[in-house]
Amino acid sequence: MIVINDRLSIEEDEIELTYIRASGPGGQNVNKVSSAAQLRFDVRGSNSLPLRVRLRLEKLAGRRLTKLGGIVITANKHRTQDANRKDAVERLVELIKNACIEPKKRIATKPSRAAKRRRLEYKTKRAGVKKMRQRPDRSED
């Protein structure tokens, strides 16, 4: 059982872990050892997550989301399978935690009278600065 928060957890059989060869430097070892972890989690097929969390999770996943509604996380920061597995699971948990946070509804407000006054004063001041930068008009001579 993978604990997300005090009210939410997912079963370990809901995630699928495979190990692949990591790219990048590593000498001959990189060609022999599959140390990178690839985690797959089916968001749409998960019974552990409420519908609202699943929908937000799909939005947050971005390019990690497959067409079928699965999240693919590849971890290859570390040199060992175990460390990369832990990293992938932590990243999934963090993503689900962010999906649990319900966004606040925006309340439309009007600018205050003082804010309008400050904006107009600033515009007048900037206009004066720009006017001073112009070449003097020769027709006044």
Distance from N terminus to C terminus (CA atoms, Å) equals 87 Å
State the total count of DSSP E strands: 5
Alpha plus pi helix count:
4
Helix/strand/pairing category = alpha+beta
Account of the protein in words:
- The chain has one domain (2-100): Double Stranded RNA Binding Domain, CATH 3.30.160.
- It is 40% helix and 16% strand.
- The protein has helices at 29-32, 51-61, 81-100, 113-133; strands at residues 2-3, 9-10, 15-20, 36-42, 70-75.
- The strands form two sheets. A three-stranded antiparallel beta sheet has the order 3-4-5.
- Helix 2 (51-61) crosses helix 3 (81-100).
- The chain starts with a strand and ends in an 8-residue tail after the last helix.
Summarize the structure.
This protein has 141 residues and is an alpha+beta fold. It is built from four helices and five strands.
What is the strand and helix layout of this fold?
Layout: E1 2-3, E2 9-10, E3 15-20, H1 29-32, E4 36-42, H2 51-61, E5 70-75, H3 81-100, H4 113-133
Antiparallel strand pairs: 1-2, 3-4, 4-5
Descriptors for this entry?
alpha+beta; Double Stranded RNA Binding Domain; 5 strands; elongated; 40% helix; three-stranded antiparallel beta sheet; 141 residues
